[in-house]
Write a structure and sequence with these properties.
Residues 13-79 form the IBH1-like N-terminal domain. This is IBH1-like N-terminal domain-containing protein. It is found in: Nucleus. The protein is mainly alpha-helical. 71% of the residues lie in helices and 0% in strands. The protein has one domain. It contains six helices and no strands. The longest helix has 30 residues, at 137-166. The chain is globular and about 50 Å long.
Amino acid sequence: MNPDHHSSLNPSSSLKSRFTKTFLRSLIKINKQRPFPYCPREIFQRCHRVKTAADKSLARAAGSRRVWSRAMLCKIRNRSLRRGCQQRPSVRRIIIGYQTTKKGYCLQKKMSDDQEVGTDQASKLRKLVPGGEAMDLCSLLDEAAHYIKCLNTQVQVMRRIADIHSS
C-alpha cells in the first residue's frame, strides 16, 4: 500500500506528522539562536518563542481551510511585524470566512433564560477560538471542535517530545 494513501486514510496521524515536523524544525532553530538562556528575561523570551512556534506549527499543520488557523497565523504575523518594526503595521484586510446574511426584519421577542445562557456560552466560546468573533454559531461550533482536536494532538506530540527528551 502506498504510504501517501495510508496518511489520507488517517487524517489525525497526518496532522500529527505535519505538526511534529514543523515544530521540531522550529525548536532546532530556537536552540541554534541561543542554546542556554541564563537570565530570567532570556528564559521568558525562549518560552514565548517555543509557544509561538507550537501555535504556528499547529496552524500550518491544520491548513488554510480552517478559519481559526488563518486567524492564528495572521495574529502571529502581525505580532512579529510590530516587534520587528516597533511601529504599527499598515492596515491589511483579511477575510476570514465571515458570512453575510440578507438584511430583513425579524420580530423582536424576549429570549428565554435558556437562550440567554446559550448566547453567553457562545460569546465565551468566540473568545476562545481564534477568529471566532466573525463566525455564526454553526461555523463556530464546527471550528471549535476542530480546534480542540488539533490542540489535543499538539499536547500529545509535545508530551511525547518531553518524554523522549527526559529519558
